[in-house]
Write a structure and sequence with these properties.
Elements lengths: L8 H15 L16 H9 L1 H7 L1 H16 L9 H11 L4 E3 L4 H11 L7 E3 L12 H9 L8 E4 L2 H9 L3 E5 L5 H7 L3 E3 L7 H7 L2
Parallel strand pairs: 1-2, 3-4, 4-5
């Protein structure tokens, strides 16, 4: 979802920085692409350390940071170019679509509502539904199971190295949109095809990967 349906990574970075600044936390390392695709449960120990996490608890840290993010981004939601046309083409062709996002359920619901794509999405798995975050494959395994499909029948669309690694580990073919990483980096991680947005992507290309 983040970086694949909407180009919103900058707002997540800003939300981490704003929230930690507001609470007086010291970042152990800068907010960077290293965390892209990771679950917040894995991000906070990395950025704040185990002592802060133990004191405040992951539930509180996650909830409050995501509230900051949603307040920042809600009025700015916009699809990546060509997304709506591709989702509509998928629906017409009978291709099932699922969201597999490390974001919490509230974030997924906000984006689905903001884009108006509820009728184009057949299932959604959020970070609230999994035990292990990307690059672990759990989120994509649960996504294709929710669709009633097998790994070899699915193509994962990702923007992050952690997501591509997770998709490959789940047994799926992967394609990448280069909103947050280069085509070279994403190809090295395992993406079969890379593109800047969805304006040149077709259902036929996706089906070709599955042959």
């Amino acid at each position: 979802m983040d970086g694949t349906l909407v180009d919103n990574l900058a707002y997540h970075f800003l939300a981490f920085e704003e929230y930690t600044k507001r609470e007086g936390f010291t970042l152990l390392e800068p907010v960077s692409l290293k965390i892209n695709g990771m679950h917040s449960n894995d991000i906070f120990p990395l950025l704040l350390g185990d002592e802060v996490v133990a004191k405040y608890g992951l539930d509180r840290l996650n909830r409050e940071k995501e509230e900051v993010y949603r307040d920042m981004y809600r009025s700015k939601i916009a699809p990546i170019a060509g997304l709506m046309e591709l989702l509509q083409a998928a629906k017409k062709a009978g291709v099932k679509c699922a969201i597999g996002s490390s974001g919490c359920r509230e974030n997924v619901e906000m984006i689905v509502e903001g884009l108006g794509i509820a009728d184009l999405i057949d299932a959604s798995i959020s970070g609230s539904d999994v035990t292990h975050g990307k690059p672990h494959p759990e989120i994509f395994i649960k996504a294709y199971e929710a669709l009633g499909l097998k790994a070899e029948e699915c193509v994962v669309v990702e923007d992050a190295v952690n997501g591509i690694v997770a998709g490959v580990a789940a047994g799926c073919k992967c394609i990448a949109v280069t909103t947050t990483a280069s085509a070279e980096t994403l190809s090295e991680a395992g993406a079969s095809m890379c593109f800047a947005d969805y304006s040149t992507v077709t259902i036929e290309q996706i089906n070709e990967l599955l042959k």
